[in-house]
Prior knowledge:
alpha/beta; 20 helices
Amino acid sequence: MTSQVSSPAEQADGAVVGEQRKPAGVKDVQRLDRVIIRFAGDSGDGMQLTGDRFTSETASFGNDLSTLPNFPAEIRAPAGTLPGVSSFQLHFADHDILTPGDAPNVLVAMNPAALKANIGDVPRGAEIIVNTDEFTKRALQKVGYSASPLDDGSLDGYSLHPVPLTTLTVEALKEFGLTRKEAERSKNMFALGLLSWMYHRPTEGTEKFLKSKFAKKPEIAAANIAAYRAGWNFGETTEDFAVSYEVAPAATAFPTGTYRNISGNLALSYGLVAASRQADLPLFLGSYPITPASDILHELSRHKNFGVRTFQAEDEIAGIGAALGAAFGGSLAVTTTSGPGVALKSETIGLAVSMELPLLVLDIQRGGPSTGLPTKTEQADLLQAMFGRNGEAPVPIVAPCTPADCFDAAIEAARIALTYRTPVMLLSDGYLANGSEPWRIPDIDELPDLTVQFAQGPNHTLDDGSEVFWPYKRDPQTLARPWAIPGTPGLEHRIGGIEKQDGTGNISYDPANHDFMVLTRQAKIDGIDVPDLEVDDPHGARTLVLGWGSTFGPITAAVRRLRASGESVAQAHLRHLNPFPRNLGAVLGRYDRVVIPEMNLGQLATLVRAKYLVDAHSYNQVNGMPFKAEQLATALKEAIDG
């Protein structure tokens, strides 16, 4: 979905405000500036699809938005159990927002497990819509309820809406001749229709989507559309929902342009395709499926028309080996993985460092160690990316900060890899990968020129006057070696992991040469041209909040809250983690306190302390979920006061 919005404006992540009006002949309509909705149910209830559709319609309407899908690691956890709960949270507003929200204003709970798993996040006074058909004695006992929370008074502090979603859906689909089990599968569309009525979401896009998704089963498409419309009509006619809500488009939140909703993994995929086109190189992806990186493989496999070739390998090592071979052959080569896969790929990353070939390694981080938490987010691979290879094997590191920023980060990683002939690590994470937000589609002329000049002939003259090709004769500015396509006459040269002689590339065990090559490879990475770190400090603060990666949204939201309450705090966010921006040391030296929030145990803080001898204070969380803005604001206030 795309929409047009115009003129930039920055507003705080503020509280909901309301304005009542009642058009003739319809229910009360209340104007809100923002809403947070969480859909929750069994992993077979279609909550991710429901959330995706609500998000798409919200994006087409022109709201700013941020999402947080949350699903089980098991392919199919036991139905009705707490480990099997899947949820999707959406925060949408009429102004610029940064996070999926701390707590939902509306919880849609499809069964007792969904209610129990999520009620702790729901503030008093919020609306709760429950599917009463699922609150059977057996389902309640399965999650530890001795009595139904719908009847025991435990939900009296909430605005509770008991709705027999399953019964209403089955009744609405009687004419389609479906079995009860088949009809029940559409209850998520009934819920989507109800919420779409409550928040005045467009309907055309969802109906078109359903017709397309079930094009080969038109009767199923028609049944889902009927359930969707029945949910809408139920909201319009039932007395239980006396008010509907409007959240106006975020017409002043963004620069003029064409926008679409995009997830981090989709943005990475598009960024890689754009980089290959800007470099005029074929794109090759060698990958092994792993959560949460697999979507990139799925998406890129659809774009053969752009010269993209995808290879699903038998394991992680084969995936990066094929990618490195493609780099040797002259492709923009990529491998995608998560933390466990990086461990397996580390030997080949070191080989790429030795061979000095461009290779993009995309690490979509998740909870660890080992298999860890496959569907939960974490930022704990920074030190692995920095040091996780044998020997001195420096690799540049780039980290996007929002789902939409993944597009630009992919292009930046490609720029560094191609310019400096080096593997590059890009650190995204599960929060960015699966979350989504509006993204302004750039014009082609806004993208950088990444064109590469391959070696064409001899580049060195020997003492006897003969001209030869030296594969390790470097560009004096970038220290990059020439990129010679195999099969080019006269450019034959050795490759491999054994140490090379400077210039000639011949095998060398000479101690002085090894020392020189180690220092040269490090100097090449240290000399990469990265922008200076920008600092947001409008009031001359004494405390700086420094972040990297996906903590950008929660940190910025927390900083806005503090400033709105009169506190003075500065903020800076790192995209380049190796090398650091050249002015980072000077920036850190300007502040009395430096606080570094991370979803790990302090990995960036460790690097900053070691390199700049700054007493940086860590604020850490490793629970598989992103920071909440209020939580960070409280911690930062304590740092300021301390």
